[in-house]
C-alpha cells in the first residue's frame, strides 16, 4: 500500500471515529479499496478542436474559471475502461457518423467483463448512425447506446450483467444504463459480506427499504425466512425482479413503494393497490430486522420511528452527516454493535459507512 493511499485512508478513519464517538460504537472495521483501477463507471466530455478530439474533464482555477483537462488515461477507472478508451477515440476520429458533435461518453464496466458505452450527441441522430455503431460494437465486443435530444438507439442491450461474489456464492446482477449501481465493485463485495455477517441467521423475516436493483437483497435473503424489499424507481424494481429470477431465489417479494409509503401502509394509514397487484400481504410477515441503504438525504422522521420498532437495524450510509443525524433518533432505542467504514471513493472526502443497531 502506498503512503499516499494510507494517509488518505487514515484521515477518513480519524474523521469517522471522531464524528461517531458519542455513540460509543465498537472498534471501527475498515475495508480498503484497490488503489487504482477501482471504478466501474466513468464519464467524459469529448473536446473538439480544429483538427483533433479527446476525452476531457474540468477543474476550476483560482478565479473559479473552468479549465479543460485532457484525459489520455484514467487510473481511477477499471482497466477495461482504460483499454477501451483509445480504441473508441480512434473510431470517432475515423468516422464522422460516430464522431461528429459527440458530446459525452459514459462507460459502465463489470468484473465479469461486459461493457456498456453510451454516446451522447449534440446533433440529431437518425438511422444512418446505427450501421456504423453496430459495426463498432461488434468490432470491440461492447454494448452501445446512442443518445441525442428525443432519440435513443440501443445496439443489443441497455444493460450489463455483473457478477459479484459473496463468500462462496456468485450472484448475477442486471445493471441498467443510467440507473444507480455501486461504482467500486471490489469494495461492494466487501460491503455485501459485512452485511451478511452482521445480519446473522434468523428464522424470521427481513424488511429492506431503498433496495435498488437488489444489490444487498439477494445475499441477505440467505439469512432470513422471507424478505420484503421496497423500491420506488420502476427501472430498479424491474432489475431487482430480473435479478431474483436470474439467481433462482424464491423467498423475496418486491413492493414498488417509497420508504414513506411503506411506513404509511405498515401503520395502516393508507392502502396501496400496488401491494394488492403484487400479491403482498404485510400481515403475513414477522420482521425482526430492517435493512436500509438510503439516499444522501437520509431517512425521514416517520420512517425512523418505524425502524425503532424492530429488534435489529442494519444501516448502510453514503453520507456520514445524515447517518449521524439519524442516529440521534435511533440511539434512543438501539445501540451500535457493529461499525464499519468502506472506502468506496479513494482520494475523495466521500465515505460509505455501516452500522448494526440492536435494541437496548
UniProtKB/TrEMBL annotation:
<feature type="binding site">
    <location>
        <position position="231"/>
    </location>
    <ligand>
        <name>S-adenosyl-L-methionine</name>
    </ligand>
</feature>
<feature type="active site">
    <location>
        <position position="318"/>
    </location>
</feature>
<dbReference type="InterPro" id="IPR030391">
    <property type="entry name" value="MeTrfase_TrmA_CS"/>
</dbReference>
<dbReference type="InterPro" id="IPR029063">
    <property type="entry name" value="SAM-dependent_MTases_sf"/>
</dbReference>
<dbReference type="GO" id="GO:0019843">
    <property type="term" value="F:rRNA binding"/>
</dbReference>
<keyword id="KW-0489">Methyltransferase</keyword>
<feature type="binding site">
    <location>
        <position position="182"/>
    </location>
    <ligand>
        <name>S-adenosyl-L-methionine</name>
    </ligand>
</feature>
<dbReference type="GO" id="GO:0005829">
    <property type="term" value="C:cytosol"/>
</dbReference>
<dbReference type="GO" id="GO:0000049">
    <property type="term" value="F:tRNA binding"/>
</dbReference>
<keyword id="KW-0808">Transferase</keyword>
<dbReference type="GO" id="GO:0030697">
    <property type="term" value="F:tRNA (uracil(54)-C5)-methyltransferase activity, S-adenosyl methionine-dependent"/>
</dbReference>
<dbReference type="InterPro" id="IPR030390">
    <property type="entry name" value="MeTrfase_TrmA_AS"/>
</dbReference>
<dbReference type="Pfam" id="PF05958">
    <property type="entry name" value="tRNA_U5-meth_tr"/>
</dbReference>
<comment type="function">
    <text>Dual-specificity methyltransferase that catalyzes the formation of 5-methyluridine at position 54 (m5U54) in all tRNAs, and that of position 341 (m5U341) in tmRNA (transfer-mRNA).</text>
</comment>
<keyword id="KW-0819">tRNA processing</keyword>
<feature type="active site" description="Proton acceptor">
    <location>
        <position position="352"/>
    </location>
</feature>
<feature type="binding site">
    <location>
        <position position="210"/>
    </location>
    <ligand>
        <name>S-adenosyl-L-methionine</name>
    </ligand>
</feature>
<feature type="binding site">
    <location>
        <position position="215"/>
    </location>
    <ligand>
        <name>S-adenosyl-L-methionine</name>
    </ligand>
</feature>
<feature type="active site" description="Nucleophile">
    <location>
        <position position="318"/>
    </location>
</feature>
<comment type="similarity">
    <text>Belongs to the class I-like SAM-binding methyltransferase superfamily. RNA M5U methyltransferase family. TrmA subfamily.</text>
</comment>
<dbReference type="GO" id="GO:0030488">
    <property type="term" value="P:tRNA methylation"/>
</dbReference>
<feature type="binding site">
    <location>
        <position position="293"/>
    </location>
    <ligand>
        <name>S-adenosyl-L-methionine</name>
    </ligand>
</feature>
<dbReference type="InterPro" id="IPR011869">
    <property type="entry name" value="TrmA_MeTrfase"/>
</dbReference>
<dbReference type="InterPro" id="IPR010280">
    <property type="entry name" value="U5_MeTrfase_fam"/>
</dbReference>
<protein>
    <recommendedName>
        <fullName>tRNA/tmRNA (uracil-C(5))-methyltransferase</fullName>
        <ecNumber>2.1.1.35</ecNumber>
    </recommendedName>
</protein>
<keyword id="KW-0949">S-adenosyl-L-methionine</keyword>
Amino acid at each position: 500500500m502506498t503512503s499516499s493511499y494510507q494517509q488518505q485512508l487514515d484521515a477518513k478513519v480519524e474523521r469517522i471515529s471522531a464524528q461517531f464517538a458519542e455513540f460509543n460504537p465498537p472498534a471501527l472495521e475498515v475495508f480498503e479499496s484497490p488503489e487504482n483501477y477501482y471504478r466501474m463507471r466513468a464519464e467524459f466530455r469529448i473536446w473538439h478542436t480544429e483538427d483533433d478530439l479527446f476525452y476531457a474533464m474540468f477543474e476550476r482555477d483560482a478565479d473559479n474559471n473552468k479549465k479543460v483537462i485532457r484525459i489520455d488515461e484514467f487510473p481511477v477507472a477499471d482497466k477495461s475502461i482504460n483499454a477501451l478508451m483509445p480504441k473508441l477515440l480512434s473510431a470517432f476520429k475515423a468516422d464522422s457518423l460516430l464522431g461528429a458533435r459527440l458530446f459525452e461518453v459514459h462507460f459502465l464496466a463489470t468484473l465479469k467483463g461486459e461493457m456498456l458505452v453510451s454516446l451522447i450527441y449534440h446533433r440529431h441522430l437518425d438511422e444512418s448512425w446505427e450501421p456504423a455503431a453496430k459495426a463498432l460494437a461488434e468490432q470491440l465486443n461492447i454494448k452501445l447506446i446512442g443518445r441525442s435530444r428525443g432519440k435513443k438507439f440501443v445496439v443489443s442491450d441497455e444493460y450489463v450483467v455483473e457478477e459479484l461474489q459473496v463468500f462462496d456464492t456468485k450472484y448475477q446482477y442486471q445493471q441498467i444504463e443510467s440507473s444507480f449501481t455501486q461504482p467500486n465493485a471490489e469494495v461492494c463485495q466487501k460491503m455485501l459480506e459485512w452485511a451478511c455477517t452482521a445480519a446473522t441467521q434468523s428464522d424470521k423475516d427481513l424488511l429492506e427499504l431503498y433496495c435498488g436493483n437488489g444489490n444487498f437483497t439477494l445475499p441477505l435473503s440467505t439469512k432470513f425466512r422471507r424478505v420484503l424489499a421496497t423500491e420506488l424507481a420502476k427501472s430498479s424494481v424491474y432489475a431487482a425482479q430480473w435479478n431474483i429470477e436470474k439467481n433462482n431465489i424464491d423467498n423475496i417479494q418486491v413492493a414498488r413503494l417509497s420508504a414513506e409509503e411503506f411506513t404509511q401502509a405498515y401503520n395502516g394509514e393508507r392502502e396501496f393497490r400496488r401491494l394488492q397487484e403484487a400479491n403482498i400481504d404485510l400481515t403475513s410477515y414477522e420482521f425482526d430486522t430492517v435493512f436500509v441503504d438510503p439516499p444522501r438525504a437520509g431517512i425521514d422522521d416517520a420512517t425512523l420511528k418505524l425502524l425503532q420498532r424492530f429488534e435489529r437495524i442494519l444501516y448502510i450510509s453514503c453520507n456520514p452527516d445524515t447517518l449521524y443525524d439519524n442516529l440521534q433518533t435511533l440511539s434512543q432505542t438501539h445501540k451500535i454493535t457493529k461499525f464499519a467504514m468502506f472506502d468506496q471513493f479513494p482520494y475523495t472526502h466521500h465515505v460509505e459507512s455501516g452500522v448494526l443497531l440492536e435494541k437496548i
